[in-house]
Amino acid sequence: MNQFDIIIIGAGVMGSSAAYQAAKSGHKTLLLEQFDFLHYRGSSHGESRTIRATYPEPYYTQMVIESEKLWKETELEIGYKVYFKTQQLDLGPKESSSLVAVIDNCEKQLNRYRILDREQANECFSVEIPDDWIAVVTELGGVLKPTKAVAMFQTLAIKHGAVLKDKMEIVDVETDEDRGGVLVSSRLGEKFRGKKCVITAGAWVSKLVQKVSNGRVILPIQPIETTVFYWKIKQGKEIDFTIGAGFPSFASCGEPYIYGTPALEFPDLIKIAIHGGRGCDPDKRTWGAAVGGAEGTAKLVGYLKEWIKSRFGDRINWEDGPVMTQSCLYSITPDEDYIIDFLGGEFNEDVVVAGGFSGHGFKMAPVVGQILVDLAIGGTTAAAQRAEEIKHFKVGRFEGNPGGNVKHFGDQVRLR
Ligand SMILES: Cc1cc2nc3c(=O)[nH]c(=O)nc-3n(C[C@H](O)[C@H](O)[C@H](O)COP(=O)(O)OP(=O)(O)OC[C@H]3O[C@@H](n4cnc5c(N)ncnc54)[C@H](O)[C@@H]3O)c2cc1C
């Protein structure tokens, strides 16, 4: 039987980043994926993810600052770009509690940020906002290329000696009574022996963890099917929405929370979408756009049309609706904070679980990969060293407290 120092289950961005970190640190590493590598059925595929430091929660800002450094270092190692930097623009009503928290956080943690009023926002970014709105501009922003970035981590993991296997659905992880560590079993009967194991199974993580822990651990993670919309930029205005012209990645606080990235992946198209979706079973997707079928989709598109018309006027063709859509999965926790913790029980610190990245995990993958490997290899000692960093991500926060971590600003995700 194959013997590894660390076995990682799930080759999305988190598992692939962890595999790279583990192999690079000299650990004999195995990465297992149920589908093909770089498949489109999870959360880490596609053309763009935003990186931004403008979080209302101070602990995420700190993680993004660290992650940005690691994205750049990893790009240098692979020799091509996955991170396209631009500014980040956050918009919203002056009194929006999440925007107020973002500004507070910028003040404490970011060297450079600016607050723009209606006129300044229009002058700098040609974006229209109401009189009672403001815009916050920060330097740490931009676009990450998801599929390309996952491929980068996998390639580098192989380069550092990791073994990668796809079409390998894992159905169980047990303690190895004879030798210590864990035994990992696939649906087709293959078995792998590992001193340590990391489970990064995305929208499938609750199912797998429930099985592995014999029902002891139920992670409150809701898989959500979400849809990304691309809109046509009007002829003659294409350049305005590019990074080269200074166009930012952006988010609009409030209800609904709307986000977008500069025109980059498809010529003359811009991604503008809503942070939200509909609850689903990841194995029984509808691939539709919204709760409530055609009527729900029309309502969702209606919000976006109104928002685009108000912010960008006639520079984007909102009238005819989106020209392209892509479906993707979120894994949402009740407080939208991640889950990164030991599985405990009979596994003690031999199995680490990471999931519930709640639609905002991609940018953090480099630092999450490091944390996962540290916890798996270093156990309680590593957890003590990283105590401050990981204290918000413990599974135990939901015990007798279904809402999890208390937030001082409104929820952002609604089922749509
Ligand atoms: C539309 C959309 C937009 C987003 N925008 C942003 C953004 O702008 N910025 C940002 O930071 N984040 C964003 N995110 C979130 C980010 O993409 C996710 O947080 C991140 O990709 C989660 O990665 P993951 O590795 O946990 O999950 P996944 O990518 O789903 O990977 C989990 C993997 O585990 C595999 N697996 C599951 N069960 C098993 C098993 N039993 N055996 C073997 N393999 C298994 C799955 O097949 C899958 O490949 C967005 C997400 C979506 C969907």
How would you describe what is shown here?
It holds the Pfam family DAO. With 416 residues, the chain is of the alpha/beta class. It has helices at residues 13-24, 58-78, 97-109, 118-125, 146-159, 205-212, 293-312, 365-385, 387-390; strands spanning 2-9, 29-32, 49-52, 83-93, 113-116, 133-144, 163-165, 170-175, 182-186, 191-199, 222-233, 249-252, 258-261, 269-274, 276-279, 316-317, 324-332, 339-342, 351-355, 414-415. The protein has 9 helices and 20 strands. A hairpin with a 5-residue loop joins β12 and β13 (258-261). α1 packs parallel to α5. The longest helix has 21 residues, at 58-78. The radius of gyration is 21 Å and the shape is globular. The site of flavin-adenine dinucleotide has 36 residues, from α1, β3, β11 and β17.
Structure described in brief:
This protein is of the alpha/beta class and 416 residues long. The protein has 9 helices and 20 strands.
Give the SSE map.
Layout: E1 2-9, H1 13-24, E2 29-32, E3 49-52, H2 58-78, E4 83-93, H3 97-109, E5 113-116, H4 118-125, E6 133-144, H5 146-159, E7 163-165, E8 170-175, E9 182-186, E10 191-199, H6 205-212, E11 222-233, E12 249-252, E13 258-261, E14 269-274, E15 276-279, H7 293-312, E16 316-317, E17 324-332, E18 339-342, E19 351-355, H8 365-385, H9 387-390, E20 414-415
Helix pairs in contact: 1-5, 1-8, 2-5
Bound molecules: flavin-adenine dinucleotide.
